[in-house]
Design brief:
The longest helix is centred in the first third of the chain and has 20 residues, at 7-26. It is built from seven helices and two strands, in the order H-H-H-H-E-E-H-H-H. It has one domain: Arc Repressor Mutant, subunit A (Orthogonal Bundle). The chain has helices at 7-26, 33-44, 50-57, 61-73, 95-99, 101-115, 121-134; strands at residues 77-82, 85-93.
C-alpha cells in the first residue's frame, strides 16, 4: 500500500492541517486549540473539576493540569477548593475568561468554515458522522 493511501497517514495529515488552521484562528486571543477546548467546557458548565474536564475531552489528568496551569497564568481561570470535597479543585472562569467566549466562538465558526470549505453541507455532515463512527465514545 502506498503511504498516501494509508488511512492513518491521510487522517493524520488532515488533522495536522486542521490543527494549524485552528491554531492560527485562535492566536489573536492568545490561546491554543487545547486551551480553547478547556474554556469551551467551562463556558458550557462553569465550575467543573479538572477530572470532569479531562473526561469530557478524553485527556489524561496531567495534560489537563498543564492546560489549566497555563490558563490560570493567563488570568482566564481560577482554581478553587471544592467545598464538598477538599481534595478536588473546581475550575472557575475569571471575567477575562468569560469575555473571550463570544469572540472565540466566532473564530471557531470561521475556522470550521475554512476547514470544510472544499465540502458542501451534505459532505461536511457526512464526514463528521463518519468520524464520530470511528470514535464511538464521542
Amino acid at each position: 500500500m502506498e503511504l498516501e493511501q494509508c488511512f492513518n497517514f491521510v487522517l493524520t495529515k488532515a488533522q495536522q492541517s486542521v490543527h494549524q488552521l485552528f491554531k492560527a484562528e485562535l492566536a489573536p486571543f492568545g490561546i491554543t486549540p487545547g486551551q480553547y477546548a478547556v474554556l469551551k467546557c467551562l463556558w458550557d458548565d462553569n465550575g467543573q473539576t479538572a477530572r470532569q474536564i479531562a473526561e469530557r475531552l478524553f485527556l489524561d489528568g496531567s495534560t489537563v493540569t498543564g492546560l489549566l496551569d497555563r490558563l490560570e497564568q493567563k488570568g482566564l481561570i481560577e482554581k478553587q477548593v471544592d467545598p464538598r470535597d477538599r481534595r478536588a479543585l473546581k475550575v472557575i472562569l475569571t471575567d477575562a475568561g468569560k469575555q473571550l467566549e463570544e469572540p472565540v466562538a466566532e473564530a471557531i465558526i470561521s475556522a470550521n468554515e475554512k476547514a470544510l470549505k472544499e465540502l458542501n453541507h451534505v459532505q461536511s455532515d457526512m464526514l463528521k458522522d463518519l468520524l464520530h463512527r470511528l470514535n464511538p465514545g464521542l
